[in-house]
């Protein structure tokens, strides 16, 4: 039996956070969720989780979240649209940087020793080599990626100055829905490929756009490393255990090491659902690298973690109950 711990999850009602909250509750932990419900949904949460509707910017909300001792903080609450971060950097600076720093300060104040941070492959910028490992230079090409890097750097400082141990988990392309069907609330206003494909299949979008078919990739469309959200959730639990056992910081990629093109993704969705995706090829989306694939050797070496559910068929099967309910 693992020890039951009191855990705070910011953004725990959101897409990735809620999957983790279910796993933490099933593992017997006591979970407090701090979420302002701007993108998160209450119905994503299991009844055992305590929801505080509040903000990481708000001191009294943070005080409520830390009103009882917390051992580990998982920090998901953030804006995550890379494109929007280039037109509205202030929004990203305020939430992803200032909000995170306020949360980190509150952790220090309340003697939290372990902090698991949702970072992103966006910290690397355009890949200089593939697969991208953790030693790859970090030169973000969008402001969103910069906000994640800024917090990683601050965590390094706070760790040195205040003894906070952290895990920075650099997600590649998160996708899929809970294979156990526990999370039913869809993401609001998705711009990412797999929810766009599913909304098109569900008839909610008349047509979807494929951004460019003239990339130097096998079929000309962009290649990404798609990682199932349940695999991400399990990596978080292993990262927490790593911190608790080793008192050592951790920065790892979370992906599969395999890349799939946009057209491959569309074909897989068609095969799984038996429906045709209506799409048109349009110009490249500015800022998109041709290919982004993770090296995940370090996560395997340090955490014993490997993706289990991240093949395209399992991914789309898991999305069907969420998008294609009659
Ligand atoms: C995937 C592929 C698109 C939509 C983004 C963020 C990144 C990270 C993950 C959080 C690309 C193509 C997409 C569509 C398409 N976020 N595409 N039509 O851009 O790899 O990464 O999410 O950490 O920071 O930038 O993900 O899902 O938008 O795109 O053709 O309608 O699908 O061009 O090749 P991306 P994505």
Describe, in plain words, how this protein is organized in 3D.
The chain is of the alpha/beta class. It folds into two domains: 6-175 and 226-254, 3-Layer(aba) Sandwich (Rossmann fold); 193-224 and 257-292 and 308-323, Alpha-Beta Complex (UDP-galactose 4-epimerase, domain 1), CATH 3.90.25.10. It is 38% helix and 18% strand. The strands form four sheets. Strands 3-2-1-4-5-6-11 form a seven-stranded parallel β-sheet, with helices on both faces. Helix 6 (193-201) packs parallel to helix 8, helix 6 (193-201) packs across helix 10 (312-323) and helix 8 (262-273) packs across helix 10. The radius of gyration is 19 Å and the shape is globular. The model has no long low-confidence stretch (mean pLDDT 96). The structure holds UDP-4-deoxy-4-formamido-beta-L-arabinopyranose. UDP-4-deoxy-4-formamido-beta-L-arabinopyranose is lined by residues 80, 82, 120, 122, 144, 171, 173, 191-193, 196, 208-211, 222, 224, 262, 285, 288. UDP-4-deoxy-4-formamido-beta-L-arabinopyranose (WQD) binds at residues 80, 82, 120, 122, 144, 171, 173, 191-193, 196, 208-211, 222, 224, 262, 285, 288. Its cofactor is NAD(+). One of its GO terms (biological process) is galactose catabolic process via UDP-galactose, Leloir pathway.
Which strand-content bin applies to the residues? Answer: 15-25%
Strand order, largest beta sheet: 3-2-1-4-5-6-11
CATH topology of the largest domain: Rossmann fold
Instruction: Please count the helical segments.
Output: 10
- How many structural domains are formed by the residues? 2
- Tell me the name of the CATH homologous superfamily of the largest domain: NAD(P)-binding Rossmann-like Domain
- Poorly predicted residue ranges: none
Q: Give the overall shape, derived from the CA principal axes.
A: globular
Cα radius of gyration in angstroms: 19 Å
The second-level CATH architecture of the largest domain is 3-Layer(aba) Sandwich
Terminal-residue CA separation = 41 Å
User: Percent range for helical residues?
Assistant: 25-40%
Largest sheet: 7 strands, parallel
Order of helices and strands: EHEEHEHHEHEEHEEEHEEHEEHH
CATH top level assignment of the largest domain? Alpha Beta
Secondary-structure-derived class: alpha/beta
Strands, count: 14
Mean pLDDT: 96
Bound molecules: UDP-4-deoxy-4-formamido-beta-L-arabinopyranose
Catalytic activity: UDP-alpha-D-glucose = UDP-alpha-D-galactose
Cofactor: NAD(+)
Protein name: UDP-glucose 4-epimerase
Pfam family, one: Epimerase
């Amino acid at each position: 039996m693992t020890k039951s711990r009191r855990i705070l999850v910011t953004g725990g009602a959101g897409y990735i956070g809620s999957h983790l909250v279910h796993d933490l509750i099933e593992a017997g932990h006591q979970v407090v969720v701090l979420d302002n419900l701007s993108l998160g949904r209450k119905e994503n949460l299991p009844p055992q989780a305590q929801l505080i509707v509040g903000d990481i910017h708000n001191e009294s909300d943070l005080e409520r979240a830390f009103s009882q001792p917390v051992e580990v903080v998982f920090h998901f609450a953030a804006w995550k649209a890379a494109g929007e971060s280039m037109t509205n950097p202030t929004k990203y600076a305020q939430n992803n940087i200032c909000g995170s720093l306020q949360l980190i300060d509150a952790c220090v104040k309340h003697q939290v020793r372990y902090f698991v941070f949702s970072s992103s492959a966006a910290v690397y910028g355009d890949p200089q080599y593939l697969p991208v490992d953790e030693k790859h230079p970090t030169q973000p090409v969008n402001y969103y990626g910069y906000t994640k890097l800024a917090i990683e750097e601050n965590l390094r400082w706070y760790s040195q100055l205040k003894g906070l141990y952290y895990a920075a988990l650099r997600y590649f392309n998160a996708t899929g829905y809970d294979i156990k069907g526990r999370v039913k609330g869809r993401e609001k206003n998705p711009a990412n490929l797999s929810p766009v494909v599913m909304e098109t299949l569900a008839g909610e979008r008349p047509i979807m756009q494929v951004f460019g078919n003239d990339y130097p990739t096998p079929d000309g469309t962009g290649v990404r490393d798609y990682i199932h959200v349940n695999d991400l959730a399990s990596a978080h639990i292993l990262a927490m255990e790593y911190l608790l056992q080793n008192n050592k910081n951790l920065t790892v990629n979370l992906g599969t090491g395999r890349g799939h093109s946009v057209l491959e993704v569309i074909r897989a969705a068609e095969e799984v659902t038996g429906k045709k995706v209506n799409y048109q090829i349009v110009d490249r989306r500015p800022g998109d690298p041709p290919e982004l694939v993770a090296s995940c050797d370090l996560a395997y070496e340090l955490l014993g973690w490997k993706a289990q559910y991240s093949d395209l068929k399992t991914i789309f099967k898991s999305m069907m109950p969420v998008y294609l309910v009659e």
